[in-house]
């Protein structure tokens, strides 16, 4: 499965370097940066060139309703012969899970799993530290 990261500015290429710092060199993941001066059509063409030879594609975008998301969804409808899913709200937890879980044949199951991972990856230290269930080290022992 091809993973495509599409985001505003250099977020896509930046988060890809973060993934590689943690997971090592990755294959079949492409970053598409939507930078100042690019048109919607340019972003769309870049994504299209990345997915052209793939049958199954997962596109991870930064903002729901933003240009990267909108043009990616347009490609889903234009390429109904392919199995393409688009998610918004990209974070590093989601990307890590997508990288390690994309061997599955069930794209819908993967999408559901990634939405849950992204949600569960959001926490605040105030609430965590108020929990009286151990030391600070125990709270964060499952971290990367």
TrEMBL record:
Q: Where are the transmembrane segments?
A: none
Which SUPFAM superfamilies does the annotation name?
A: PTS system fructose IIA component-like
Q: Which CDD domains match?
A: PTS_IIA_man
**InterPro entries assigned:** Bacterial_PTS_sugar_comp (IPR051471), PTS_EIIA_man-typ (IPR004701), PTS_EIIA_man-typ_sf (IPR036662), PTS_IIA_man (IPR033887)
Please name the PROSITE patterns in this protein's record: PTS_EIIA_TYPE_4
**What domain of life?**
Bacteria
Location of the PTS EIIA type-4 domain:
1-122
Gene3D superfamilies hit by this protein? Phosphotransferase system, mannose-type IIA component (3.40.50.510)
Its localization reads: Cytoplasm
Keyword Cytoplasm included in the entry's annotation: yes
Principal localization? cytoplasm
Know the name of this protein? PTS sugar transporter subunit IIA
Q: Which organism is it from?
A: Streptococcus caledonicus
Source species taxonomy: Bacteria, Bacillati, Bacillota, Bacilli, Lactobacillales
